[in-house]
Hints:
The protein is mainly alpha-helical. It is 77% helix and 0% strand.
Amino acid sequence: MKSFFLQNRIRSGVIIAVILLLLLITGSLWAPDAFFRAYWFALMVWAQLSIGALIVLLLQYLTGGEWGRAAAPILRAIACGLFLLLPLFIPALFALPHIFSWTQIEPGVSVPVLVNKLPWLNPSAFLVRTLVYLTAFSVVLLLRYRDPISTVAGPFLVLVIVMISFCSADWMMSLQPTFYSSLYPFLYFSGAMVSTFSVTTGIIAWMQLKGMMPSHPELLLAFGKLLFTSVLFWGYIVFCQFIIIWTGNLPDEAEWYIVRSEPAWLWFTLLVLACHFVVPFCILLSQDVKKNARQLLAICIGLFAVHLLEVFWMMRPTPGAGFNASPFDILLPLVIGAGWLWFVLGSREIVLLASTFSPHEAHES
Length: 365
């Protein structure tokens, strides 16, 4: 089974790297604004997934449980996918003016609320803070094998939660620099949980279907419940943020929803709400669906695909810009995702997990 993961690994890795390099050169020369916005969007999708897996992994160290023992190798592999993304941050950090409008803040010209944020929203401070976030996440990942990890999992979890509270505001909320919401880090966290449990549950279901681990409907049920809970939590946070902003009725905050309710974006907003919350909520109410590996895998694939749209919905709408999308918004998440998947599936944790059971043993179980 080990050869299944490692076959042609070097060749496929080189192909992905070459494609990404060609896209980087072509996009930065041809349409740098559209390219680097899409590049940042792709980075945020896969970074959020890795950070979410790190949080769930630390929770598993603290709480234990059968689902945690089964998911721990997968969560470690997904979390370590962040190491692949670290060098990919470099091109984006050199292209901040193409991504963030706050790089053009000018005292006496820009609106006062932006001028007041200038000590925080400036390229130098942003670069330093990003290095701090990535360093903190990397240190926690490097120490994940510490013995006993459970004694430091609590402080590590607090550190990671504090880091995502800041990095979600810097990396995503500041794309619309006049907007502020105290619930935005929770929205980021809830999305990370949906993506993490979609991928983890999908991998467990896929491995059972392929005979790479014993068929275990009760384990699938446990993961299905976690996936259902993450969807419910996301819907709750989205509703809470909307109610708070609607009640406050402050122009700088309300504009975030006004843009997403304009004709150019309204259909997209309804699509995200329906497919990221209403539909999976209704489907996952069924116990039988949560115990069926094939059906659960289909739900996980669809939910993660919609999660990509949800991240796009959080990041892209801009006042006065209409529905601004480009082919790069499709190509870059796929290419970076292919590299991320290549890295994760070839990790030691996944290879060892796959080699634990032979197909004959799994089917007999």
